[in-house]
Amino acid sequence: MNEHASTAAPAGRAPTVADVLALPVLAAGQPQVVTGLTRLDRPVRWVHITELTDPASFLKGGELVLTTGMPLPDDAAGVRRYVDELTEVGAAALVIELVRRYHRPPDALVRACRARGLPLVTLARDVNFLEVTQVVHALILGNQADAMRRTQRIHEAFTALTLRGAGPEDVVRAAAEMSGRTVVLENLVHQALICEPSGSTVREALTGWERRSRATEPGDRTEVGGPEGWLTAPVSYQGERWGRLAMLPADGTDFEPEHRTVLERTAMALTVARLIHATPWERTAHRNALRDLVEQRHHSPEDARARCAALGLPTEGGVFLAVLVDLGPGGDGAEPETRLHRELGSAGVPALVGVLSPGRLGVLLALRPDRPWRPVAERLGRTVLGLVPAATVGAGSEVADLADTARSFREAARVLEATPPGQPLPADRSFHEPPDIDLRRLLYALREDTRVQDYTERRLGRLIDHDTRHGTDLLTTLGHYLDAAGNKTTAARRGGLSRETMYQRLRAIERLLDTDLESGERRTELHVALTALRVLRAD
């Protein structure tokens, strides 16, 4: 069998008429396709040798019919009837040997086969029909056995995923890997929540997703449909349709039965996963998209745009603003996340909202260029503070391209890093933004940097040690002097000291620190160090 089947069909699918004609056992007969050249991709389910005038009564469809031509009727009407019966029962093709009765195919047979679209193949040399049936049947049965084994492996793989409580991303990824096709999970409003590309990019898979998806009508079963020929399967939750899986075609090749099995088992596994993983998958999709934007994990800006657009976020002709929310230690982002989704939706503001890490929410606003962002950020901030009064809201800067949103998120993160707990909000504002970061807040953000700590110690260490050993308070005096911008009179008044005492203390400070307090540069250095010390001690 192996020798004859060397050019067999790919394992797992039934051989086509073209596959069978290429087998050495038939190729030896010098086959020539007379009609139906474009239909040689028909699957061959079996081979049937017949010398009957009514062979159709013994067929079930999909057979390659072999004949010497001996039983063919002599009249054109009889030939047409013969071909009609083969066509109606679904025969894959008719192969006639031109050795015994005919040396060229009868015109009536050619006309009838051409009229009914039945492939007609002639053999110029004698072929052992029994050997043909043995070879082709062995090939078919072998492929069926292979297909059954692969189907069993598919079932086992998805059963294992279900037993270990795999999430939706793992399930869809497994489907793409097993099928070698791109698989997309969408909800009822045609938002692509999970996309696992195979042999293509996210951009190629998701560009224009909603429009393309709506062109493919939803069905109640696994089926191929729509202008692009998607293989789709419904996904249910608690007895109601929740969404749909779409497997995209590749390189113009047809879907095989195994692809249907993979998609159906994927849908079943997702139904179980939805019961196990309580977080709504739309929310998970937003979280994943935000994290990829923040961490710049997309393969390309085009992929990022396609993915966000498939989630319903406008990606062209607008501006984007990143907002981060720090909920404080132990803060639970689930309720604020839900409220912000609802609040922004009611305001008609497209956005991605999701938990980025424990206690931290991320929001990406997509705004029209003519819509000011501050009122939206203000509404967002008030909503958060109404739920979590101790929360801190930080905004980045507007960016015109989705690819630049990582920069806006970095700016918002720096705002949060530079905002100590309890930091008063600016007047009439519920959020902080980059211009709010002054020297003290900058040093607060850098307080764990050993270079800042070392700088502070080198500038003020000797003064602090002197105060500790002698019980003096020269550091406080220096603080009054620096805060008064070098005005000794003001510094003395603030410290409750006489001018002479102030002068004496300043001279002592200059001696201990080996510096000149009349120098503006030296005062600036000391003021920065003292501000850093205050931040470190207040932390």
UniProtKB/TrEMBL annotation:
Residue span(s) of domain PucR C-terminal helix-turn-helix: 474-532
Domain CdaR GGDEF-like: 299-418
Domain Purine catabolism PurC-like: 19-140
InterPro entries xrefs: CdaR-like_regulators (IPR051448), CdaR_GGDEF (IPR041522), PucR_C-HTH_dom (IPR025736), PucR_C-HTH_sf (IPR042070), PucR_dom (IPR012914)
Xref: Pfam families: GGDEF_2, HTH_30, PucR
Family note: Belongs to the CdaR family.
Protein name, per record: PucR family transcriptional regulator ligand-binding domain-containing protein
Organism phylogeny: Bacteria, Bacillati, Actinomycetota, Actinomycetes, Kitasatosporales
